Amino acid sequence: MIIFRYFLREILFSTFSVCIVLLLILVSGRLVKYLAEVAASAMDLSIMIAMLGYRIPAFLELVLPLAFFLGLLLTLGRMNGENEITVLYACGFSEKKLFVYVLAIASILAAIVGSLSLVISPSGMAKYDVVVRAQKNRSEIDNVAAKRFYPLREDKGVIYADELSANNTLNNVFLVMTDDSDARPLSRVVMVIAGEGLQQRGDNASEQYLVLNNGIRVDGVPGSYDYQITNFQEYGIRLADNESFKQESVAESLSSAHLFESNDPKLQAALQWRLSLPIMTFVVAFLAWPLSRTKPRQGGYAKLLPGIIIYFAYVLSLNALKGAIESEVIPVSITLMPLHIVFILIGASLMIRRDNRPLLKIALSLKKEQS
To answer: DSSP readout, 278-345?
Structure first.
């Protein structure tokens, strides 16, 4: 048990260290996109944090198998390079027993990945879709904050409100819009100053208007002296329509139970992908064990790059097979399992090839002696 705890500690430490780095890389890409929308007042900071939080399980289910593979290569490569594995062999530990330790650690991570891919990630993506749908359905006035300039959609102009009351009424409104009608030059600008403004819906539910009360409208070309100044008690401006909600993938937000009951090839392929992620955790153990073996002068991490190439070939092959199942080029009954078996056999063949080398040398030497 001491050796198992040592393996567990070293492999999990390397795995989670790599996982944190990879997760930060993925999250940072989304974070930059969301921060741009927050800076443009198109999204609240709390909404951004919620959206990132709901997507983290989906990132983790993809990152953990790769992190485990790299953690195995780093840990076992270091142990081989420092002759720790050789010492264990000399103390009576067989390679089979040590590999069983690795598979036991893989089963722990496979349980984590399986819970992420089958339960936690779909639930998070469903909540993510709800948040995005609510964000898309918000009108422009809903996103306006007090004492901040907010750009209107479709580059129509900029609005500013000195105060924002509890019933979402804007006080001391300043609005600048470009007048791009066919009857007027494109360079004309409309400036409106009003005491208050509020949002109203038209007869059609999709039509939304900003109604301004008790203000002044100035219409003219900047730099010229030809201005039209109009005092008004009520002035209405139609707002741009809400952005249509588009789900990144319908299957991502559906529960695994729903996918089990469906006969749709796309949903079946999505289910097989979810089931493949925990299986990948075992497959990478078969690949990492022989790849971590190096010669004394090669260094502990000599096969790190070839291992990464094999891993990405594995993932790309799975994606290609998944796409073929979705497009019904390959029957759903084939599943992704044959590809997992192929890479398990590749790892097993690498183990057998290395183990049989001494036997081959002995056989050749005996043959020479007999001749």
So the answer is: HHHHHHHHHHHHHHT---TTT-TTTTHHHHHHHHHHHHHHHHHHHHHHHTTSS-GGG-SHHHHHHHHH
